[in-house]
Structure formats: structure tokens, C-alpha cells
Amino acid sequence: MTTTTRPRRSTAPPALRLAGVVLAFGFAFPGVYLVYRALRDGTGLDGLLWSARTLGPLWRSLRLAVSVSACALVLGTGLAWLTARTDLPLRRLWRVLLPLPLVYPTFVGAAAFIRTLNPGGLANDLLAYIGITALPELRGFFGTWLVLLLMTYPYVYLPVAARLRQLPGSLEESARMLGDSAFAVFRRICLPYAGTAIWAGTLLVFLYTLSDFGAVQLMRYDTLTRAIATNHLANPPVALALSLMLLVLAAAVVLAERWFSRRLPDGARTGSNRPLDYRLGRWKPAAAAAVAITVFASVAAPFIALVDWAQRGMLRSMTGERALAVDYGSIADATFNTVWVSVVAAAISVAAVLPIAMLVGRHRSRTGSLAHAVVISTFALPGLLIALSMRFWVLRTDLVLELLGDTTGLLIFAYIVRFGSLAMGISVVAVRSVPERLGDSARLLGAGPVRRFFTVDMPVMGPALGAAGGLVLLSVMKELPISLFVSPLDFSTLTTRIFGSFEDAFIAEAGLMSVILVVLSFALTWFFVVRRQDPT
Known about the structure:
Number of strands: 0
Helix content: over 70%
Shape: globular
Low-confidence stretches: 1-6, 268-272
Largest sheet: none
Mean pLDDT: 79
Number of helices: 25
């Protein structure tokens, strides 16, 4: 019988504990400052919280988040079961393609659907040949719901598919031998086993929908985020009241996730892990068609639209019919800015969470546990609220305005607060993966703490920390609200230029830059998400 030994608890160095406290304060600062500013400047806040100006956006945000997350639960779980536990044709190909909506910023997907179905759009022109001339206008609730569903279902699909691939086939075989139908096995075995993954993914979609700004802005659907962006300069008290509502909602989602995850079955692996594949039989063509339609609508159609806009604009420019509104030098600058600021933010994010990960993973420190909880909770803080907090902080503090008012340092700090939590979980695993005997051997040979860290710890932790940085890098590249509201005046990224071009109806220019951003995001998604999936 084998036993698992817990890592022994050692006293954390004072400098490491101090670093953990300082870093936790840095991650918590935007949220704390936003609450402080709302309470300090919130004259008449009680009246604003219960006025139609705030309750209307609140209701629309909840309606959208519930609708998108419920549908993503059904779609993501169904796709995960089909690709992980059935004899679906081409399922290895679908496993590669189904996560790819992650490469699209939601506002790019929204613009693709809006412009493609409008008069003069690619889909409109093609359907006109077969006599279909009246197409629905994708605006408001329905358009926002459709775009966010197609862009966010991978947040449910990926963890559920990974969980179902770990499900021991012996459990299902036993249930089938006892006379259960395939549906009964799915309901009684698969769903409870994958319950934590389903719940976590669904709440992530709910939180993502609450915090989305780009899609709701282009779709002209007035949720909390759009109302905050509209009022943050013209009517700050209203913006602060709306921000408090959004902050409370996000915190409630995180607390609900923790409460329910403790009460769901853990689904520990037992018995044989040989997967059991269900035969779809006469349902196989319908299942394959459903998966293919999902991939086409969420991956292929937006990319085809972007390429169509880009090539039309480039052809017009080359033939002298009409020059592009943005020159290639500006596109190159925006691409360079996007890459370097994302790389720097990712590297600093990993460096910022690593001391906390060492406090938790190696020393099991109470200070580290508290700092870890603070960092993880910042994931619930929408990017728009971080951007709003930074703007209020800079504008209301003379010293900060002078030092950081128009610098990329403030932008990078906002990125770190927003996405540092993505690196935390992997960093803790990386720290725990370093065998204690290696550090003990190096210590006996006279290596000091710094030398042990670079010669023993880093070679072991390096691959995992690289993956953590990659996830932050991918997220920073697609971030819109922080890039839009915190960037210096002369600093543009691909997301800000694309969003501005869509808003100004420069579709060809937006399509060209979107193709560049999507290709960069695809390369990162392939390396850090798709490539790491179980290929069986």
C-alpha cells in the first residue's frame, strides 16, 4: 500500500512573507479603491442604487448572463460528451477546433456577425442568390446572446471534456450491465462525475458575460458595463453606483462557486480507466451535423468574414480605388505594442504570483493562504472596473497623475491585476512539483537560497511557469476595456485600433488587424490549450 506524504511545513523567510503581503495589497488595491471612492463620493448613492438608471442595466445584465451561461452549460456539456465518450466521426479534429473561439475577442465576433448579415455583407450577398433577402438584424439582446454563447462555450467544454476523459469506463459498464440505458448512465454517472467542472465552467461564463464590454457595446445592448462606460465621465456618481452593483454581483458569483463546489461530488478516480465509447447509431449524422454547425458558426464564419473584409480593403488600396484609412506602419506599431506589452505583463504577472505560490506550496503559510485568496478573487473583478478604478485614482491624486498619468506602467499594472490570477494555480502546482530532496541536497552542498532557486527550482518549474505566462499573454492580447481606458494617449494596441475601426465603420481596416490578432491568438491557443489536451 502506498501513502502520500504531505509536504513538510517550513518557516517562510520574513522577506518572502513581506513580499506576499505587499503583492496581495497591490492586487486588492483597484477593488478596494473603487469601493472607497464610491463611498466617499457617493452623495445620494442610496437613491441611485434603486433608480431606473441603475436597475435597468442590472436587470439586462442578469438576463443576459443567465441566458448565456445556461445555454453554454447545455452546449458545452453536450459537445464534451460527444467528443469524449462517443464514436462521433472525426472527433479528434473536433477536439482541435472546438476550443478555437477562445482566439476571438468577443467584440470581433460581434462585428463579424453584424457586418456579415447586413446589406452588402458576405452572408447577405450569398443568400440573395437563393432568394433569401430578409435576414434578422443582430442587435440588442438576441445578437449579444448569440455572440457570447458562441464565444464562451469553450469555458464549459474544455474542463468537462477533460473530466469525462478521466471517467473510469468500469463505472459505466457496471451501470449498463444492471440495465441502465445510455441516457440513464449519462444522468447518473457522467453528470455527477463532471459536476464540479460543469459548475465551474458555467459560473465562469456567467462572470465573463457580466464583465463583457466589447460585444454589448457593438450590439448596443445597455448592460452594466456599457452603462458604466457611458457615464464614467459625464456622470461619475451613476458610474460609481453601477460599478458597485457589478462588483457585488461578481463577488456573489465567486462565493457561490466556492459554496457549491464543496457540496458537489468529487468524482475521484476509481477502478479501470479504460474509456467507454457509446455508439451513436442512427443519431450519428445528426450529432456530427450539430458539432459541424457549431464549429462553422463560432470559428469558420467569423474568420471568413474577417478575411473577406481584409482582402477587399487591400484590393481597393492596391487598385487605387480607395486607400486604407490606416497605414501599414500604424498596424505594425499596434502589433508591436500588443506583443511587447503582453509579454511584459505576462512575465511580471508570473514573477508577482510566484512568491505567493511559494508561501502556499512550499511553506503552507497562513500569510500565503490569505494572499492567494486575494489574488484568486481578483479574477472576479471585471476589466472595466479595474480601468475605472485606475482612472479615478490617477485623476484624483496629483502625485500619481504626475508620475503615472500617461505611462504604460499603469497599463501593465492593470493587466497584472486583471490576469495574474490565471497564473496563480499553475504556479502553485509548479512549486509543489520541485522534489524536496533536491533542495536538501543543494543545501548540504553549500548552495544558498538564491543559488538553489536558480539552479534547482527554476529548471523544474520553468515549463509550468511558461504555460502560466502563456495564458496571461493570450488574455492580455485580447483585453479591450483596460487597453481602451488606461492606455497612454499615443499608445495603441490591436484591440483598441480594431474596436475604433469598427465603431467608425472602417471595416476593411478592422478586418485586416483582426486577422493579425486572431492568428497570433490562435498560435498561443494551440500551444497552451489545444496541444495539451489528451489526444486519445
